[in-house]
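[Automated response] Your request has been received and processed.

Submitted sequence:
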Amino acid sequence: MAKLDPRLRFLMREKPRMSAERAARFGLTHPARQKRGLTAKVDVLVRVQGAAALHDLRAAGMRVTAITRGRSVIASGEIPLSRVGRLERMNRVRRVEAARPLAPELDRAITVTGARDFHSPILSIRGQGTIVGIIDGGIDVLHPDFRAPDRRMRDGAVVRGNTRIRYLWDHTAESVAGGKVPFGREYIAAEIDAAVRGEADAPGSDPAGHGTHVAGVAAGGGNIDARRRGFAPEADLIVVILDRIGDPQLAIGNSKQVHAAFKYVIDRANGAPVAINLSRGTNGGGHAGETQLEMALDDLARKPNVAIVKSAGNEGAFRVHAGGSFLPHAVRELEMDVTGRDVEDDLIEIWFDDEDDVSIAVCAPNKQQTDFVAAEGKRTFSIAGNDISIDIDCDAADIEETRALVTLSRGRKKKIAKGRWKLLLKTGSVTVGRFDAWIERPSPAMEARRPYEQTQFSAACASNDRTITTPGNARNIITVGSYVTRHRKGGAPVGELSNSSSAGPNRYGWLKPDLVAPGEVVYAPGKVGGKHTLVPHSGTSVAAPAVTGTAALMMSQQRGLRSYQLKQILTRSAVREDSSAGAPDTRWGYGKLDTASAVDLATRALFPTISRVRLLGTTIAWKTDIASRAELRVCRDKQQLQLGRNWHIVRGQRRSRSHKLDLKSLPPGKYFCEIVAYGPGEFFSEDDNDGDYYTLRIPRAKRRRR
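Generated structure:
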């Protein structure tokens, strides 16, 4: 089993100067951080066995910036590319993954969802006592909608309200001596208030307005227009600036930074209810929740008082996915159209089961073709003047599946050859027979300089399903698509799903998105001509924070809820009408966000508490505080259990407060178990033994003596 991500292996085969340039293009680092003539330092996420292995990472030269402990121990940080090989040789290192750039996925929302009902003086549910976390590409801290309302004194003087931003971590700022963050700079509320009063420079910035808009949808205070306040207008904010969207020199936000950002927001919330929004993503990965970032966020989402919300992505109309079935002893062709502007490496990931015998080749528009590369093969070719790399990694991410990374590079040419390229998938024996392929986006910096570079599958090959962007495919993350509440030219009609909204399911069949929210022409805080105002944006980027703000309102009514429990309430209360009447499905999820119903249901939903778990031979016993229906999710592999693959379900027959389930009917072996308790209304709680799972061994039956 290869431990290294194919992107890292690809970089390690390059010459030092070229590897530094490519590392920047892959979003693994930034040119300003490289020293001329030296090998690149790269951002990575590493999954290890046990916390003791973290010392090994540091000894190998990795600068660890964030650690999450749960069902997996995942560390993110920076390491010289020349030392990545040391990580691969360590016994306690399970997987080393290259960080990936996450691009942004960019009124009537409040009225349509019913949120305004709770903002009224009668109910006054506005997110008090909760925190909204925003992880994005900047924020305008001086915008009035992120402050408490101004007060007019008797003498007519106006006293500006204090900021609602408790903490701001700017990844792009210069570090200061004695800072409490591993890179960049942290600002506290007092420093932001000084900027509001004009006594200091304002921290952070937001050239594109994306982060400001997202924060305004979730938690804008309505100080400019009370009719267009955010969903949780009295929640406090914790903000992380990953990059500055709109500034190509600083468009470096990647999954290592996102990992550190989530950990930071949760730590700074210090136990208070916090709903965290991420409105950006990537096409990379197997779209099953198996990336290191998704596994880490999946664990964080299981903490009490934490909600994690992710935009579904805007890939629905961009032909970036192809998938289908293999036939044995045949060749399947996948056609790709390359534009005349393509100067950046094209990365294509192809995933299929380890039990299927598949080899891969590439054919250029001029009909030149590479050799076929079989499992565990790593080959580089030159055709049509371009360089082609094929790297096939079996048991990718420890999930008994194969990932092939195909890289098209310009080589000695100025561009990748324009025209129709083909991926050729040649099969031998076939057992499972399903494949999926995704084309990665160009880097955010390249999109800013040279738009319309995206390589696409041909219309005949492309499939709009399974296009939820990473990290939105994890089970416990709340993933949000977009529908239309205000029509725009060329867009879908009001009430319909946005044309670009990504569709599910994830690769293991889990329903995604979970629900949809208003995302077409939504007004929120911004700036026009240097003046603070409200501006329109569209996309799942602005649909997700509607759910984030709603989650904050829900958490203000019932403390201790976890992300997967909030998801149950949101999906049960979603509206299914007109075009969404057929939900749940892989486009609408469970339907349209209904904030009013969700907040009301949050006050009434009962989730069982699981306690007093005992292991008795082949039996697991436990108690619940209310009568519940019992279930065990059982799997031979921890990671597959986390991802929801190859489960075996054992169910109890009646509701009780005392539960006992026996696994003796299963084949002999070691099993990892997760307890599920279904209470009134089938609202369920889970217990995974703090990430370790409950472990049972089923012995072999003893042979009777004759």
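Summary generated for your ticket: Confidence is low (pLDDT under 50) at residues 30-38, 248-252. The first strand starts at residue 41 and ends at 48.
If you did not submit this request, please reply to this message.
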